[in-house]
Specification:
Elements lengths: L50 H15 L4 H10 L4 H14 L4 H16 L3 H10 L4 H8 L4 H16 L6 H14 L4 H13 L3 H8 L3 H15 L4
Helix pairs in contact: 1-3, 2-3, 4-6, 5-6, 7-9, 8-9, 9-10, 9-11
């Protein structure tokens, strides 16, 4: 009995249509690298970003690390190529809403650096100047650190260092006065603080301290300090 003829309809055993039958849409042409020449949404170039938006993102990243002064943020924007006009607009707005506040920054800086590092007003003034804080704003913040508090901090620093100090009294004296000078304490205050601490330490140290003319030495140190400052 003759075998059954294969069906050629559209059933399960239908043969695939031949090219050109019109049953399937033509495939898109491919370029030399095999990718479709049709538009690829993933490769569509993004529109240029607004400069002010970029500036705001830069500022927020800077502020996420620690509080910044207006001058510090302006410097960061300039390094990233933000125009002065856009920078001023963004920073003015941040000033208005209180995101940046140089007066608050200065007060917090003085409190933190004095309590944490024992820095005196002179050193703190230099740090605020380096961060672009206006001189008048810095003076107001430094005015909250009075002379009595500064002297107490100096004495505490000396007493703490003296517990582990080694060497002859004169060598210890020079090291401790130098330590206070690096932290911004004026010569007179530094010398008196170290002399008083040595006098209370031991008989030998007290005998050495008695020989120190704090006023004369402070005057000499002050003259050396003035001579070492740059002109102007």
């Amino acid at each position: 009995m003759a075998g059954r003829r294969a069906r050629t309809g559209r059933g399960w055993d239908a043969s695939p249509p031949r090219a050109g039958d019109g049953d399937t849409p033509p495939r898109p042409r491919r370029g030399r690298r095999g990718r479709s020449e049709e538009a690829d949404p993933d490769t569509t170039p993004a529109p240029p970003r607004d400069e002010a938006e970029v500036a705001r993102e830069i500022c927020l990243r800077q502020l996420a690390v620690r509080p910044r002064t207006r001058a510090e943020l302006a410097g960061a924007l300039a390094k990233r190529g933000i125009s002065e006009e856009v920078s001023a607009q963004v920073l003015d707005r941040y000033d208005e809403v209180g995101i940046i506040d140089d007066a608050a920054f200065a007060r917090a800086w003085v409190s933190s650096r004095h309590n944490g590092r024992g820095l005196a007003r002179r050193a703190l003034a230099n740090e605020l100047r380096q961060r672009g804080v206006d001189g008048e704003v810095a003076s107001e913040a430094l005015g909250e650190l009075d002379e009595e508090t500064e002297a107490e901090t100096a004495r505490a620093l000396v007493e703490r260092k003296l517990r582990t100090a080694r060497g002859e009294p004169d060598a210890v004296f020079r090291r401790l006065v130098g330590m206070l000078a690096r932290k911004g304490y004026p010569p007179g205050l530094a010398i008196r603080a170290v002399k008083d601490a040595l006098a209370a330490q031991s008989a030998e140290a007290a005998e050495f301290a008695e020989q120190i003319d704090a006023d004369a030495l402070a005057e000499a140190e002050g003259e050396l300090d003035r001579d070492s400052r740059p002109a102007g």
